[in-house]
Amino acid sequence: MAKKFVLLMLLSRFTICIGAQSSSSSLNQDADSKFNKQSASSSLCFEKYITQPYFRQYESLIDSNFQEYLRHNLPLNSEKAFPRLLDLGRHLIGEGSHRRLSSSVTFSIQPDLVSKLSSRLCEVIIIERLPSGVFADPFELEHIVQQGVFKDVSVLGDINLELPSFRSNQSIVEIHLDMDLNKSSGQEIVQDFRIELPLHARYPPLGESGYSEVIFGVPDLLLRCLSLELSAAAQSCLLTRIPSDVDLALNPVVWLIPAGIKAHAKLVSLVTFASALLSAISIIIVSLKQSRPVSGERLKQT
Amino acid sequence: MVFFCSMQKTMMITFRSVLLFSTILRVLLILYGDWQDSHMEVRYTDVDYLVFSDAAALMSSGDSPFKRTTYRYSPLLAFLLIPNAVLHRSWGKFLFSASEGHNFLWWSSQWQCLYFADLLVGYLIRTILKLRGVPDNVCIYSVIAWLFNPFTFTIGTRGNCEPIVCAVILWIITCIMRGKVYQAAIWYGFIVHFRIYPIIYALPLVLVLDPRYLQSGQKAVLMKWSSRQVELPQSSDATEPRTFCAVLVRMLSGTRILFGLISGGIFLGCTGLFYYLYGMEFLHEALLYHLTRADPRHNFSIYFYHIYLNYERELSIMEKLVSFLPQFAVQLVLIFCFALDLPFCFLAQTVAFVAFNKVITAQYFVWFFCLLPVVMPWSKMKLKWQGLSCMLCWMGTQLHWLLWGYLLEFKGKNVFLQLWIGSLLFLAANTFVLVAIIRHHRYCPIFQPLNFVSKGRLKVNR
């Protein structure tokens, strides 16, 4: 289970810290240009799902390729004008093959960015790279969207629900959550939210111990804000990652999944075939004793 | 006469009462199912129902139903459900069951479909038994064995489509018994396309159309229930020529050839049409998947752990043959022993087919539960204690398996070996039950030999 590493005192949802308002237009322009420089290319910002272009380029999810994709399109920066991840808590809820991955996130947005974003519709995007031993059911997630828990969700990559893990590839779950940033500009905002992602275990590779470990990494968090312009041509889009100031030394989330034991293979195959043969012979003998041939000999009193 | 009429009326009311009570039961179950879906971790509604509902919605918007992951049915099923997305209330009366996640009106219309399919199976069971002269009270008990079987009404009310398949299989038997052979052939072609497993009935259907029992232009007579203990005169088989040519001529009779051509034509026609519409995706998902399915995930089959332990390597041809041999051998022997007693042959074949299959899920049990009532009147098995021991053995081994399955899937314990042993015990129980059914059955071909003098022969209708 993950252990929280708390940097700042946690505040309740939509709490606002009083701070100096940035009034200088030159400061705004400066922040804007820095933001735009560091933000994603406009085409990526307008994609329905941020990870979709990755799968147009690559067939399957490989961590190094995906990290490179993010670095290229959404470079990190150290400007204080950008959102910062303050706290991340992760743990698994439930038992057996069907569990929920819980993530609680706290991040802050500085005043000059708040003023820029106050006139926009914003959402937080959580990119969960699932290890190969687990999968998310797209239809189950669609149901969650219909219930209003998430704004939108998509599963990309290997969405085969039935293959064991050694025959399947990794997948990504991209979750979108509405973020109703307070309209008061000039104040720092600290936002927190918690999500639970239902996951299911695949049959893992065979082993000796009888269990297979599936280790979850840290999700990638992004903030996307669209202007409220009615016409698409006039719309502007801001997309940025939400990095953390310090290294969040989280304990990894580990899921132990029962696995078949290699040493059983020969005995199981032998006994399986022998049982099937024995049952078949029993049925055949009784049938031949009880039957009347199809050639239609007379019926006897039974 | 008056007494006979009042007895008939009582019997009719009793049959109607059975239908009424079974309807009430299904309504209550569907209400309960909706509650369970909303309040409990394990859902009542079958996942498959959501799958083919989604596929129907895709089809109604012009998309392929196979875009819905794990949709492995004929597009016919999605097509049948399209009006559910549009007409809701009225179409719901003709198709089957509900799912959660939709509005109550659509949901309430869905259960009416299922009730209708279940009711139709009950009606066809009674029809088949009445055709063979089974008394009304025995018919009622047989119908009850279907309508109040916990497996059938549970699986049905969970939104499973198997009752429709069962109804068509029983309708095919009814058509054969009424001499409507070519109508049976058309339905048989459709149902094999719809659900592959009825292909196992191909050979007994051909064999039962024996020209010594059923010929065009001559009436065939059904063997009545009352004659099940009567010794009939020896047929003239001994005097018929037994040369290879004579046997071949008998095997390749006009009726048999036409039956094969019609059913094969319907099957290929449907397959060709949907291949034209949906391409290789249809062939793979609706046909090839079922023929080559080897699911390593836990299920009742004895093969699941063997498949999982060997999934990382390719099985040799010999290994595949060895696993197929028991199934093949049992099917052949059952067909050649019991084909002329068509309902019993179907039952025995289906029980064996399910027991030896590489994948077994609970919905497969409905395939033979619908055939059991049409065979029961010919069984010598007494409820005490032979019948009860069969039921307890079969249900007990199933519950035992489910216990280990729960520990594996919902508690995350490594109990693969115990679960596999549970599968072996379940196979043993299936074998025990099938052997008991065979031993206690009074073999009775559905048709009398043509040379047997009797009244009221049926004519083969084209």
From TrEMBL, chain A:
Topological category with respect to the lipid bilayer: Single-pass membrane protein
UniProt keyword terms in alphabetical order: Endoplasmic reticulum, Glycoprotein, GPI-anchor biosynthesis, Membrane, Signal, Transmembrane, Transmembrane helix
InterPro entries named among the record's database cross-references: PIG-X/PBN1, PIGX
Location of this chain's protein in the cell: Endoplasmic reticulum membrane
Protein known as: Phosphatidylinositol-glycan biosynthesis class X protein
Species of provenance: Carnegiea gigantea
GO biological process, one term: GPI anchor biosynthetic process
PANTHER family, A to Z: PHOSPHATIDYLINOSITOL-GLYCAN BIOSYNTHESIS CLASS X PROTEIN (PTHR28650:SF1)
UniProtKB/TrEMBL annotation, chain B:
Broad class of where this protein is predominantly found: endoplasmic reticulum
Enzyme Commission no: 2.4.1.-
Localization of this protein: Endoplasmic reticulum membrane
Keywords: Endoplasmic reticulum, Glycosyltransferase, GPI-anchor biosynthesis, Membrane, Transferase, Transmembrane, Transmembrane helix
One protein family per Pfam: Mannosyl_trans
Pathway: Glycolipid biosynthesis; glycosylphosphatidylinositol-anchor biosynthesis
Record GO biological process: GPI anchor biosynthetic process
Single GO term (MF): alpha-1,4-mannosyltransferase activity
Domain of life: Eukaryota
Membrane topology: Multi-pass membrane protein
Transmembrane segments: 104-126, 138-156, 186-209, 257-278, 328-349, 355-376, 419-438
GO cellular component, as recorded: endoplasmic reticulum membrane; glycosylphosphatidylinositol-mannosyltransferase I complex
Coiled coil start-end: none
Stated family: Belongs to the PIGM family.
Protein's name according to its UniProt entry: GPI mannosyltransferase 1
Source species: Carnegiea gigantea
